[in-house]
Amino acid sequence: MEGLRDRTRRAVRAELAARALELFTERGFDETTVDDIARAAGMSKRSFFRYFPTKEDALLGELEATAERVAQEISARPPGEGAWECLHTVLRGWEAHINTQIEVLRLIESTPPLRARLLQKRDEARALIVEALTGRGLSPLEADLASVAAGAALDTVAREWLRTGGSADRLTLTDQVFAMLRPAFLS
Question: How many other C-beta atoms are found inside a 10 Å radius of the C-beta of residue 63?
């Protein structure tokens, strides 16, 4: 069970992320400082850094926790399930959580420092997923390729969703893209 301290920390992180998004959208990423975000949340710059190591992480900080939960779900799937079906099922369940805010996706797409930090965070997340997939019997090479292919599938879904202004059905897109991209070595 989660304690009060963890719930409070998560609430403060969510508040900082919300203030950061508002300011980034209103002023621009480069024009917004950590001091601005901290002030908007009623705290000091020093306090901000207790919750996030960089201002980029104010938007992307939850990716680590999400990656850990995704890896745990992959490990917990039935042993006889194929790796691609496993990835599809687990990531389909997380799709709405991973890419829910169209304004965040637009901001990341248009802001090189955010894109760079996202790529770094994704590499860290993929390492956890690769580990979970190797635990299911894939070689490191197969697990790495499968995780990259699944990431490309989710990126494609996000871009198509952006192109439609957020009107496309994301789960249908996810199913369609995973079917199109299925790696031959996982058949």
Answer: 18
pLDDT for 31 beyond 70: yes
The DSSP secondary-structure symbol of 185 reads G
* Contact assessment for residue 99 and residue 158, using Cβ atoms and an 8 Å cutoff: yes
Rounded CA-CA distance 96/11 in Å is: 20
DSSP 165: T
Quick one: angle between helices 102-110 and 4-27, nearest 10? 60
pLDDT of 99 above 90: no
Which positions ≥6 away from 87 have C-beta within 8 Å?
A: 74, 129, 133, 146, 147, 150, 178
Lowest mean pLDDT among 48-52, 60-64, 174-178: 60-64
